[in-house]
Batch of 4 targets.
Target 1
Amino acid sequence: MHVIDRRLNPGGKSLVNRQRFLRRARALVQRAVRDSLKDRSIKGIDQEGEVTIVRDGVHEPTLHRSGQGGNREYVLPGNREYVSGDQIDRPQQGGGGGSSAGDGDGEDEFRFMLSREEFLELFLDDLELPDLAKRRLTGGEIEGVRRAGFKTSGSPASLSIPRSMRNAMSRRLALRRPSRAELQRLEDEIALVEARNPPEPGDAALLERLREERDHVVRRRSLISYIDPIDLRYRRYEEVPKPVAQAVMFCLMDVSGSMTEHMKDLAKRFFALLHLFLSRSYRHVDVVFIRHTDRAEEVDEDTFFYSRETGGTLVSSALDKAVEIIRARYRPDDWNIYVAQASDGDNLTQDNPRTIALLQDQILPIVQYAAYLEVGREEDPMAGGTIASDSDLWQAYVTVQAPKGRFVMRKVHHRREIYPVFRELFQRRGVGVRGGAA
């Protein structure tokens, strides 16, 4: 998205100030785009739409006298209403879109209609998969071109002048083409002989010989061209497969009976964001959807987001299924493996040791990054927030030993918390600080 400042340049404001204003306007639009997530459905999360920013956010700061303190006297010409000592009330400011009557002027809020491409550009800015490092040659896919020598034909744009001139010079040397200096030498000698007065004996024979030699040089120069079509060389390019980073993201979602509709909505929104981010930003990323109750199964995208199946809870079944799929299809030496898990934290107590063992011993050693999102009940506005103890699964995951930054945990209770947490988990390195378990 590009913001264009079409205002005039009053007061000779510098380009730096105008660029600062454009960056601030873009940041406000980007914030409005991200705030719109809580009002969108899962299906419409990536659709175009209108966003609004407040007008105060794009006002440029100015220096002026403080309105507080000090004694001031004003002369108001044509005053028929006030006398010395009267206090004048501050004018009432109106606002665009207000419902109350009264005097005063105001301005409407800024509204932006964004296309789908602009919306996604702002929405997914500064996000990336962490530690995307493992690369391999994909099966025959052409990723780019490289220089591969020269060829004797091609387009004028690919003509290599240095190589063509070198070939021409080599050909002229091999064929002993007379140089311009040699021709000039003969011309000078002929002119010198012709200028003798009186002529010396033998000048006529010498002059005839020099003229024959000059004609021979001119003929050879015309027969052996300075540059010939056979000298031309064109740069040659060939398409080659480049090593590309391959990644697979495992999406593990708890759909057991303990997950309320609100919790499932939070989990689905998180995974919808994740799927949108991966499909938009990367070409070589597989997404594996795994739903689990007391048993886990790999499903397609539609089933993952819209199936209403429910049941008991066994978290280890999802991790078992992920390990099984990795061994069958995704070799850890070639693939960057990521795991994202969402659950309400409810699990059988006797299953927690096996869950920790699977995560710590089999999954974390081979993945680039793993994230656990615990969804909770919606906050009660009257209570000022939800105060709840950590779940059994959360307490179990806290004990997991993992390299710094390899495994992170976060909690969400409301729609408005989804994007900030998602961005914290997948923001580009150097943009922000990613912490460990929360």
Target 2
Amino acid sequence: MRSHLMPIKRNKKRATQRKIKKRSFFQRFFIRLMTIFSGLVTLSILLVLGLRWIPPPTTAFLIQDLYQQGKSAESIHSVKVEWSDWADISPHIFVAVIVSEDQRFFQHHGFDVDEIQKAWAEYQGGKRLRGASTITQQLAKNLFLWSGRSVVRKGLEAYFTIIIELLWPKNRILEIYVNIIQYGQGVYGVTAASEHFFHKPPSQVTPREAALLAAVLPNPLRFRIDKPSPYVKQRQEWIIRQMNVGGGIKLLERGLSEKR
């Protein structure tokens, strides 16, 4: 009788050991996964925090553009985004960007819910689904991510948008945004754009020139500053009117003072 029971007990013991090993494997895997995840989160937060004071050396969109042009890895690493500090940029540029890209920039915390709802209502009404991205969302995409549409990219965009809004003041968001976005083929940053198209530093850009810079932002590869189409000219005039209605520089000063 005893000889028959011993194999059964041993089999049960082995099965229990296998279950423990299996459970232990998944526990170790989960711990390692969470360690990697927390490390990536910490790294991304530190990266964004550092850029609050340090100009970005390059951007994800700029690197992607260089690769698409067939540039070598060495040339990519040597590229620097041309930078101008806040005080060296005409305030008209900031105002033009706000009124053309994100008029509730100082009211929201990274996501314009009203604009999202409006875009969705238009889509349900039969219109093409348009973007409702804020300046902060566009900054997060251009600085850290890649072009194209996917759930993963939109999720990461939302993640970086939240971190940026938590760690940066509004003026820093504007400062980096105008310094990294593309204004034309191979023209990145407001310094390069003002010197290339207007032959002057960004501090001397006029309201009309600032409006023209902002007019091409929806698609700087299709719309041109040096040869503006009738649509770009029409959009430029609309931006100028919006700048005047909003009070121009006073709009900027009021928004910044309210956020301090």
Target 3
Amino acid sequence: MKTEVTHRILPVNGIEMHVAERGEGRPVVLCHGFPGLWFSWRHQLDALAAAGYRVIAPDMRGYGRTSVPSDVAAYDRAHTVADMVGLLDALGLEQAVFAGHDFGAHLVWDLPAWAPGRVSALMQLSVPRTPRLPVQPSVGFRYLASQHFAHVHYFQERGVADRELGENTREFLAKLFHALSGANRYLDCWEFPSEGNGYLDVLPEPPALPWNWLDEDEFGYYVAEFERTGFTGGLNWYRAEDAVWAQNEALHERPVEVPVTFIAGEKDPVLEMMGRDPFAAMRKLVPGLVSTHVIPGAGHFVQMEKPAEVNAAMIEFLGGLPA
């Protein structure tokens, strides 16, 4: 049995993909979001492997030690789905349980429609399934930016956010991790206009590390990786949103019928922005929904903030799947 995390680089879908693995048994692929890395799943790698699963955590396209294509078109849904199918092929796997967080959740929600037969179940974190937007995402982003600072709009112009975040990596990561956590400060950004402000101008000041869920060594891993790579790869996922929207025209509303568990932090701003019942649409769009867990005290980075609770929910769900 694999008792330690192993690392390797695999040729996948025309890129080189860095993958961290641990354990043996039913395969579980963990897909991070922005600004994440395979390391965002460090607590799940340990716990799920100990529970008898083969846990596979890639650096997603554009991140960490995986290739960073420069063309925004390389981050559309056709490419990101092909990455996951190619990863299974490279590992000799027919199917896997997929888990996603943030942009990883956006991708994983689409996998059953795009790659039927390759997905046995989903474990989704922080981002519920929602109906298809009636307009291009960039149109919606512009509207939000007319009301208040909106990072989704700020990220669209190539080079602007790339420079700001890349030149202030440590400050940016500390501010964002804190604002999106259970401290629940992210919506402070809405107090500022878009014009004349960068992301660092509107994010609240964080307390000094260590925090109760992130120590200096763990934070240092993120800083070192993003200082080396910059943020353009991650930002390109935002810039590809119009292409993803267009490619999903005939697929987005297809019901997700594989077994699904959804896990989120009680204080996640994503849920707060979705109103009184953020799961209403998901219940209609995801007939395979088995369970929903809202973790008290946690924010957006629920798998790092409350790993024991998240791991317990995942292991319970996995244990209930058909063999």
Target 4
Amino acid sequence: MTYVIRGLDPEPFSRLFDLDAAGLAALNARRVTATADRGFPCRISLEDARAGEELILLHHTSHDVATPYRSAYAIYVRSGVEAATYRGETPPVFEGRPLALRAFDAAGMLQTARLAAPGEADTAIRDLFADDGIAYIHAHNAAYGCFAARIERDAA
């Protein structure tokens, strides 16, 4: 069994980079500059921004379902990057981070969850998908709680 992890579609976020500080603030968003090569994970490219790169920090609904598990939190996005796709492997943004993996059924109800220490995400993902009732998994940074990526069964 293999899986696929895709970055968010950049199109819905592209207009944010044209807004000034007041326009962003009206959307509860902020323009930030990465101060280090780690710690500013772009949810489109699934890579950390490099020091000096501009990002938008915004509130994002990552689990838009009609269940008690609907979820939203702050994420970073960069301009000019393409949505990443990783098949059967974890993206760079997972490296060195403990992750909370939340496994959902097709109706958007949480079935189980797992903590994965750095380097354990691949094994934990495959283990969760061993249950046929798991339709998809959401990865979150365990410490800060922010959405990292959606993980789906690979239909290919």
